[in-house]
Amino acid sequence: MTREEIVKQVNSLLAEEFEVNATNFTPDANVKETLNLDSLSLVDLVALVQQTYKVKIPASDLRGIQTFNNLYDYIESHLPQA
Amino acid sequence: MKYDVLIIGGGLGGLECGYILSRAGQRVLILEQGRQPGGCLQSYHRKGMEFDTGFHYAGGLDEGQSLHAAFRHLGLLELPWRRLDADNFDCVTINRHSFPFAQGHDAFANRLAEAFPAERAALHRYAGLLKRAARLQFAAFSPQSSDMDLITELMETPAYKYLYEHFKDPLLINVLSGASLKMELRPESLPLFAFLHGNGCFIESSWRLKGSGSLITDSLVQGIRAQGGEIVCQSEVQELVEKDGKLTQAVCTNGETYESRLFVSDIHPAQTCRMVRNGQRIKPLYRERIQCLPQTFGMFTVSLRFAPGKLRYFNRNHYIYRNPDVWTFHLDNRPVSGVLASCRVPEDDSGYTRQVDLLTPMNWEYCKAWKDRRDNSYEEMKKQTAGECIALAESILPGLGEAETAYTSTPLTWNRYTLTPEGSAYGLRKDCRAALQTFLSPRTPIPNLFLTGQNVGLHGLHGVTMTAFQTCAGILGKDAVWEMLNGNCKGGN
User: Fold this and answer.
1) Which residue of B has its CA nearest to A17?
2) DSSP state of B402
3) Would an 8 Å CB–CB cutoff place B291 in contact with chain A?
4) What does the pLDDT look like over B111-123, one tens digit per residue?
5) How far is it, in rounded angstroms, from Cα B51 to Cα B214?
6) Is residue B90 in a domain?
7) pTM of the shown model
8) Among B114, B115, B335, B361, whose CB has the most other CB atoms within 10 angstroms?
């Protein structure tokens, strides 16, 4: 999966599941603020990423994911090898 | 009539929340679908004797220990608790070699070091971690910041990996894990936090009730009523009505409706979500993630009844295994190769017990074929499994075969009476690989709906009680709950 494919797919998934317009998803935008996530829906995001990409995000790593770019990076670097 | 808090389900968590909230002056209503409250704690009667289902012993009741402050607040310290043998409260037997557990962290480590002298230092480090984990759990209620980073780390560490990194002798690892039939041991998923929690409070101190687990239920029920709360049985909620983003009322299958300001659900979170049929708050993502969480295994139980003066009372629990495969034996259902044997404190102080319970894990997959068709083959399976449990336990406890009668239950029985999905004994499976998803928050997407019970946090008397206080902290505030646990609250006892 290329970086572009990840960005496109993640944006489309988040827009659908969190009902937010994907045009707000700029690389440096804050994920929690843009998607309006509280501590519960943040766990929904973690579950969604795990279910879709088989990428687990431990709590310690979650703190480091602030922007959309951080999220794309995390998924890209943790995607299981095909 | 509008209540302050409506609680769905009168299991231990629901009753404890009902007690805490009514004691804090809230107008509480508990709706229980069954004939009696208690959930996994309820007892049943056969020929004049009361048999327990889910409750066998409690841990950490001495002052300063894990459950003391919570039970003091709940009025449960007054019950007739009997301390198990100080130097042998749990006895783990593997392939006929027995290893006694002593109460108290140092005594526990020293006693096991007699059999495993090369592991003495590692045993003391483990005991130290147990002590630290217990303190952390209590400190988590403090309004001041607690060490949540360490709790998170313990939740994300596999217990199995920790044990193999800290101990050299595989037999000792089996022995240390041997008293853990009270949780589902899975090498790949069981979090260290759950393992420490499930063992820790019993190592502090271990107690049995003189009487059945219904003493706990009855005491809470009486307390709730005395504090102005109401409990209605045979009242099954079928729908929770959401209006303008909040729940407003519960509709029961008997047509009754009840209005409330706040709602607490002590039933399975997935069932709770299904009850909110037309709401906007619970999004499909939350609903689906709760729905797909796996359950822990169920239990097969044998309750043996003895004539007076036949079987000597044993003041401990026996965990008996055929082989050193404590972490995996439950994956195969047959033959029974691990069993917990517990007995009832003699009512007449005679030194002889009248009741012994035997428990062994049983998977839903194994028994679900009989869900709608309990024919002769089901009876045969129960008879054979009971025979295997008795034979294994009798290798350590001679005379078990002389019981007058044996009553059995399976996960199907559990599922039928408590409506627990898959007859699961310990609720949703906690998974260190997905700690954030499997340790649930008492909060829900609906601001006036809270969760409690063994599916949310940890299970057992200790786990459910701590979760009840957490749930109530969401309603009354963390400060108020911290004061309760430190003995500074107003009113009540």
Assistant:
1) B285
2) G
3) no
4) 999 999 999 999 9
5) 9
6) no
7) 0.94
8) B361
